[in-house]
Amino acid sequence: MNSRCAACKYLRRRCPPDCIFSPYFPSNNPQRFESIHRIYGASNIGKILQQILPHLRAEAVESMYYEAQCRLADPVYGCVKIIYQLNQNIHHVHNQLANIQAQIAFYNAQMHGNNQIQNAELPAFVGFNNSLADQGNAFPHPAPPPSIRPPWPM
Amino acid sequence: MNSRCAACKYLRRRCPPDCIFSPYFPSNNPQRFESIHRIYGASNIGKILQQILPHLRAEAVESMYYEAQCRLADPVYGCVKIIYQLNQNIHHVHNQLANIQAQIAFYNAQMHGNNQIQNAELPAFVGFNNSLADQGNAFPHPAPPPSIRPPWPM
């Protein structure tokens, strides 16, 4: 009988009926287990899955696979680089919003406070037309998540 | 002599002069190695560090420690949840920007195309004053990084 899951095939072991891996690592996708195994190791994957309620395990495997792919592609920063870049983007868009809101306040004052104005001289707003794509890709430090702050200065 | 690094102490082994762990896991911070070891395992940490240039290894350990802390705090989603939430925030702020830019275009038309207007009736813009904090915390799927797209539908 050759019904071992991809994990048990990779680990060259018998696939027991209650195998913790088999629901998430079908035999027709060996690369999926191999990727995740190279980063976390089979033992740690099993331990993490054991502590998770069964209906959440598929999501856990997806997120671990995602992180593993990122780490394989970028061994230095993994998906933490993405967190940093997204935070940079948010910071940039917030600056854009603040500038535009100031511009709207100016227009409001012109339209409702001074109805005689014909050719208003607009104030200069910095960064209004900057594209998000202009953000640099340097990675000094990852950005803080809601609860866990890294120990280095932000 | 008791100069073993935190990793070698944890693994109950001699700490060789060229220990791959010792520069990043000082003996006075055993929790740091323990966290990262619980997620990646000592063998995988060593393998990842070996393939990275020495001057980038400290950053790699920081990012792995960060991911490990996230995974210990949230075994199901780890730091992928943060990526999803940041993408949600960016999507929301982009919508805000689009609405505000439409509002500015309206003001521009009023001020420069119709100078006689006194009490302009403004169009309705949705979400202008919504706070970023209003974003939900549901986690259907993590968002796509620049290069690695997860296999599920976005």
Describe the 3D structure:
The structure is a homodimer of 154-residue chains. Chain A has helices at residues 6-10, 30-40, 42-50, 57-73, 80-113. With 154 residues, chain A is mainly alpha-helical. Chain A folds into two domains: 6-73, no CATH class; 80-134. In chain A, α2 crosses α4 (57-73). The termini of chain A are far apart. The model of chain A is unreliable at 116-154 (pLDDT under 50). Chains A and B meet through α2, α3, α4 and α5 of A and α2, α3, α4 and α5 of B.
Name a few traits of the molecule:
5 helices, LOB (chains A, B), 154 residues, disordered C terminus, homodimer, mainly alpha, LOB domain-containing protein (chains A, B), 2 domains
Helices and strands, with pairings:
Two copies of one chain form a homodimer.
Chain A: H1 6-10, H2 30-40, H3 42-50, H4 57-73, H5 80-113
